[in-house]
Amino acid sequence: MGALPVFSPIRSIAGVALCALALSGCGSSLGQSGGGKSGGDVKIGLLVPLSGVYAPLGQDMRNGFQLYLDQHGGKLGGRTVKVVTADEGEGPQTGVPAAQKLVTQDQVTTVVGVVNSATALGLRDFFDEAKKPLIIANAGADAITGARKSRYIWRTSFSNGKVSGALGPTVAKEVKGRVYLIAPDYAAGKEMVAGFRKTFEAAGGKVAGEKYTPFGTTQDFQPYLSAIRGSGAKAVYTFYSGAEAVNFVKQYKQFGLTGKVPLYGPGFLTEGGVLAAQGQAAVGVKTSLHYSTELDNPRNKEFVDAYRKKTAKPPTVFAVQAYDAAAVLDKALASGTGGDELVKALGGVGTIDSPRGQWTFDGDHNVQQKYYLREVKANGGTYVNAIIGDLG
């Protein structure tokens, strides 16, 4: 896969009409099954971007979903699965109607997916009122499992504040001096910076400056890199993804900061096709994330091999999140297909044995998982996010 386009865990939801979508999970850990007696067929909606700037993420999620089904005979919870796929597009303007059709016309039991947080937040009330579970396999807005949580909404991915906050204490320990914070000027950028800053400062870290760049339109980072150099910062923490991540990291090296001012960020800064496009410029960048192809556990080794055989490319965190959504449903669907039955079952799925490592749902239906410290290293003509530590 080439460089990912700009990926947005969350966007503004002003003016978005609330709507309906039933979301169900797809993807699970190898060899893990809910078992249970056969209970007939079940129809599951898969809502992922198949067009637009987020299509590469959607394809990864679709691949992860289908891989789990392939490995389990096309069944989840002993039930033969019919997948109905819908295109989320680039946000709620397309994602909400697509979700509504899955529920009202296609009559799916549950829906899995959702890349964009504005789509997820725009669907919140509909799922809550429809009493159908929505399993979010990417969207990272803190409110999804925070201020706007619902008993019908579950998440197998991450929240912005947690994935960024995991890195704060480590940076405070490693950097002897002030750190500059820079991110795109939209909700996810601000949540990523806020999560990092909270734990960084609590661990004694000091901030050299904070800047937000125009989201999705910034291509020349030289003025911002000049400000970083002028600040005297000893390191930089940044959140960019997709094309912005590629441009920022490449220009960071061209500007002469690489090797002199260490660069840190959440893992989306160097994930998947983004890292392939950054190449040598990304070597040495350290990130926090809940997955890497380099994780040394049996589940991940099997998963990486199976995914490569299926797609001819390495898996990403987006594929794992959808794969694990299937693992969750494999357990839950053994108990029934009604909305309240599924919600009760989701609350009792226990530990998921995942390629990312074992995880569980917390009381807010968010993922309680381990985050890893990764560093980009060259590996046989390619580049990988090597695991160099655990972040808790």
Can you tell me about this structure?
- By secondary structure, the protein is of the alpha/beta class.
- The chain is built from 12 helices and 16 strands.
- It has helices at 55-71, 92-104, 117-130, 160-165, 168-174, 187-202, 222-231, 242-254, 273-278, 298-311, 317-332, 339-346; strands spanning 41-48, 75-76, 79-87, 110-113, 134-136, 153-155, 179-184, 207-213, 235-238, 263-266, 286-289, 352-354, 357-361, 367-368, 372-379, 382-390.
- The strands form 3 sheets. The chain has a 7-stranded mixed sheet with strand order 8-7-9-10-11-15-16, sandwiched between helices. A 6-stranded mixed sheet has the order 2-3-1-4-5-6.
- A hairpin with a 2-residue loop joins strand 12 and strand 13.
- The longest helix has 17 residues, at 55-71.
- The chain is globular.
State the helicity in percent bands: 25-40%
Mean pLDDT: 90
Taken from the alpha-carbon principal axes, the silhouette is: globular
Q: Report the sheet with the most strands, covering strand number, pairing sense and barrel closure.
A: 7 strands, mixed
Structural class: alpha/beta
Element pattern in H and E: EHEEHEHEEHHEHEHEHEHEHHHEEEEE
The span between the termini is: 30 Å
Low-pLDDT runs of 5+ residues are 1-38
> What topology, given as strand order, has the largest sheet?
8-7-9-10-11-15-16
Rounded to the nearest angstrom, the radius of gyration is 20 Å
Fraction in beta strands: 15-25%
Counting H and I runs of at least 4 residues, what is the number of helices?
A: 12
* Total E-strand runs: 16
